[in-house]
Amino acid sequence: MTGFDSAHYGNSGVEASYDAYLSGKAGWSELSLWCDKMLHRHPPVNDVILTIDLDIQMKADELLGDRKGAVVLLEMDSGHPAC
User: Fold this and answer.
1) Of 51, 54, 65, whose CA–CA distance to 1 is shortest?
2) Nearest to 83 by CA among 50, 37, 34
3) How far is 35 from 33, CA to CA, in rounded Å?
4) How many CA atoms lie within 13 A of 8 on its CB side?
5) What would the pLDDT profile of 34-62 be if each residue is shown by its tens digit?
6) Rounded to the nearest 10 degrees, how much is the dihedral formed by the CA atoms of 26, 28, 29, 31?
7) 2: pLDDT confidence band, cut at 50, 70 and 90?
8) What is the DSSP code (8-state) at residue 23?
9) Which among 83, 12, 19, 15 has a CA at the least distance from the CA of 52?
10) Integer Rg of the chain from CA
11) What's the longest Cα–Cα distance across the chain?
């Protein structure tokens, strides 16, 4: 599963991996961030858009059950990834 599990940690690490980008800290110096904080300015925040089909993700989760593993979708005719 992907997304926030709590206010501090996500299940998959996507949030942790992109924390600086999501919080608007990427590309800013510590001095700039400190000045913004002192002046009560908020850096622009960003989004990360994941291309996960919820129905497919839920079905894969159902099929895996308690087992650890991965699900790979391929186009039957070409063998290329379906997503």
Assistant:
1) 54
2) 50
3) 5
4) 0
5) 888 888 887 777 777 777 778 888 888 89
6) -130
7) very low
8) H
9) 83
10) 19
11) 59
> CA dist 29 to 20, 36, 40, Å?
12, 11, 16
Phi, psi of 4 (to 5 degrees): -75, 130
Cα–Cα distance list, 3 to 7, 11, 47, 69 (Å): 11, 6, 12, 19
Domain boundaries, the chain: 1-49, 51-83
**Three-state DSSP class for 10?**
strand
Residues composing the chain:
83
Q: pTM higher than 0.70 for the full model?
A: no
CA-to-CA distance for 73 and 83, rounded, in angstroms?
A: 7
Angstrom distance (rounded) from CA 52 to CA 44: 25
